[in-house]
C-alpha cells in the first residue's frame, strides 16, 4: 500500500512527535497522519475516528506553536473555525426539537429587533441555511465591538439585508455565529457558550465557545500565512456583492480572526462561527452523539438538517454549494467520505468534523497550520485512509 506513491514502511515522521492509540485495523490512518507532517507541511494536529461506537483512532502529533517548542498533547485545544457553525447550529436545532420555536417561524418572532430594515419575513430556516440576507454588517465596527456580544447582535439586527431573505443564499462566514447564537440567547436566555458547555459536559467533549482563561494554556497557536493585520480596501469603490463579501470577512477587522487569533480576548470571546476551540476527540464525540438515536436530536429533525436545503452559486465561496441546516451534506465537491447521507462541516485551514450514518463513522480532525481552503491533501488523505480500513 502506498501514500503518494511511497511505500508505507518508507514514510517516517522524523523528529515530529506522534502519540496516541490506533487500532491495528486502522494502521493506514496513522500512516496518512504521519505523512501529513513528512510531506504536506503539517505543524501540529490531531485526528480521532469513532467506528460503530468504538474509538479506533485517537492520534496527536507535531507542535502547538510555530517555534516547535510545545508538543501537541491529547488535551491541546485549537481554533477550528467553521467546524463551529455546525455545532452552534445543533444548539439551535435542539430548541426546535424541544418545541420552543419552529423552523419556519420568523426570526423576529423571538428576536423582534431583527425584523428591522426589511427582514421581517426572514425565518429560522433561512438563518440556518445561509438565506437570511445578512452575511455582512453594514455599520462600520471595530475590534472593541467584536468582544461585546450585545453590540454585535444589535448591529446585525439593524443591518438592512443585502438581498431579500429567502431568495438566494450567501455563506454567512462570520455573522452566522451571532445570528444563530442570538436566536439561542433569545429562546433560552443563555449565550451559546453556556449551552455548548452543557452539551459538551454530557458527552465528555472538549469543545468551547468562549474559552475560560484557565484553559488558555492548553491552546495551540494558529499559524496563518496571510499576516498579522487585515488587508485594507476602499469599500466605497466596490459593487454591492464585492462590498458584501469584503465586509463579511473584515467588519469588524478581526471578524475572521486576522490579527487577533492567538490573543486572550479572541479565545475568551464568543464568535461561534469562527472561534470554537476544540480537540479532535471533542469534535468526534459530538458527531458520535448525533449517530446515537435521540441523544442529541430526533431522527426526523436530524435527517432534515442533514439534507440539502439550499443549492446554488455562493459569492462568498465563489462556487456552487449546498447547505443543510447548520450542517453541510456530503457533496462531490466537498465529500465526507464515499457514502451518501454523511454530514458535517469543514473549517478554514482544513479542520473538519462529520458523521456517516451508513458507515457508522464519527470523525474529528484539528490542526494549527491554516491554509486558505477547507479541503486539503491533509484532511483528504485521512478521510480516504479511514474508508480503506473499514
Description:
With 390 residues, the chain is an alpha+beta fold. The chain folds into two domains: 1-76, no CATH class; 77-351, Beta-lactamase (3-Layer(aba) Sandwich), CATH 3.40.710.10. The protein has helices at 27-39, 83-97, 124-128, 143-146, 149-158, 175-188, 192-203, 240-250, 264-268, 280-291, 299-305, 377-389, and strands spanning 2-3, 6-7, 18-22, 44-51, 54-62, 78-79, 207-208, 223-224, 277-278, 310-314, 319-323, 328-329, 343-346, 352-356, 361-367, 369-370. A hairpin with a 4-residue loop joins β10 and β11 (319-323).
Overall pLDDT level: 93
As for the number of domains, it is: 2
Q: Quick one: overall form?
A: globular
Termini gap: 15 Å
Which secondary-structure class do the elements indicate? Answer: alpha+beta
Q: Within the largest sheet, what's the order of strands?
A: 3-5-4-15-14-13-12
Percentage of residues in strands: 15-25%
Main sheet makeup: 7 strands, antiparallel
Approximately how much helix is present in the residues?
Answer: 25-40%
What is the annotated CATH architecture of the largest domain?
A: 3-Layer(aba) Sandwich
| CATH class assignment of the largest domain | Alpha Beta
**Tally of separate helices:** 12
Q: Please name the CATH topology of the largest domain.
A: Beta-lactamase
Name the CATH superfamily assignment of the largest domain.
DD-peptidase/beta-lactamase superfamily
- Any low-confidence stretches, pLDDT <50, length ≥5? 1-12
Number of strands: 16
Rg, nearest Å: 20 Å
Order of helices and strands: EEEHEEEHHHHHHEEHHEHHEEEEEEEH
Amino acid at each position: 500500500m502506498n501514500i503518494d506513491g511511497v511505500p508505507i514502511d518508507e514514510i517516517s515522521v522524523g523528529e515530529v512527535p506522534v502519540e496516541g492509540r490506533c487500532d491495528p485495523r486502522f494502521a493506514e490512518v496513522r500512516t496518512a497522519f504521519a505523512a501529513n507532517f513528512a510531506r504536506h507541511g503539517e505543524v501540529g494536529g490531531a485526528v480521532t475516528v469513532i467506528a460503530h461506537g468504538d474509538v479506533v483512532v485517537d492520534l496527536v502529533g507535531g507542535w502547538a506553536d510555530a517555534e516547535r517548542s510545545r508538543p501537541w498533547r491529547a488535551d491541546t485545544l485549537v481554533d477550528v473555525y467553521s467546524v463551529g457553525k455546525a455545532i452552534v447550529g445543533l444548539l439551535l436545532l435542539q430548541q426546535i426539537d424541544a418545541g420552543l420555536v419552529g423552523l419556519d417561524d420568523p426570526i423576529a418572532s423571538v428576536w423582534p429587533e431583527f425584523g428591522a430594515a426589511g427582514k421581517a419575513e426572514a425565518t429560522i430556516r433561512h438563518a440556518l441555511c445561509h438565506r437570511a440576507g445578512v452575511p455582512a454588517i453594514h455599520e462600520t465596527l471595530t475590534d472593541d465591538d467584536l468582544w461585546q456580544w450585545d453590540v454585535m447582535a444589535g448591529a446585525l439586527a439593524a443591518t438592512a439585508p443585502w438581498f431579500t431573505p429567502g431568495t438566494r443564499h450567501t455563506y454567512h462566514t462570520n455573522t452566522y455565529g451571532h445570528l444563530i447564537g442570538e436566536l439561542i440567547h433569545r429562546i433560552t436566555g443563555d449565550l451559546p457558550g453556556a449551552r455548548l458547555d452543557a452539551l459538551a459536559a454530557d458527552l465528555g467533549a472538549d469543545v468551547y465557545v468562549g474559552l475560560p482563561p484557565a484553559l488558555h494554556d492548553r491552546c495551540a497557536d494558529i499559524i496563518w500565512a496571510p499576516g498579522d493585520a487585515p488587508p485594507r480596501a476602499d469599500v466605497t469603490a466596490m459593487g454591492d456583492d464585492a462590498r458584501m463579501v469584503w465586509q463579511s470577512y473584515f467588519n469588524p477587522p478581526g471578524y475572521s480572526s486576522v490579527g487577533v487569533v492567538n490573543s486572550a480576548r479572541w479565545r475568551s470571546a464568543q464568535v461561534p462561527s469562527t472561534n470554537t476551540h476544540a480537540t479532535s476527540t471533542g469534535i468526534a464525540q459530538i458527531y458520535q452523539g448525533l449517530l446515537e438515536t435521540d441523544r442529541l436530536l430526533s431522527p426526523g429533525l436530524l435527517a432534515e438538517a442533514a439534507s440539502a436545503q439550499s443549492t446554488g452559486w455562493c459569492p462568498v465561496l465563489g462556487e456552487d454549494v449546498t447547505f443543510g441546516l447548520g450542517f453541510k451534506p456530503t457533496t462531490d465537491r466537498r465529500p465526507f467520505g464515499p457514502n451518501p447521507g454523511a454530514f458535517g462541516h469543514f473549517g478554514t485551514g482544513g479542520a473538519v468534523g462529520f458523521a456517516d450514518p451508513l458507515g457508522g463513522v464519527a470523525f474529528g480532525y484539528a490542526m494549527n497550520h491554516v491554509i486558505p481552503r477547507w479541503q486539503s491533501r491533509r484532511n483528504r488523505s485521512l478521510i480516504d485512509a479511514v474508508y480503506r480500513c473499514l
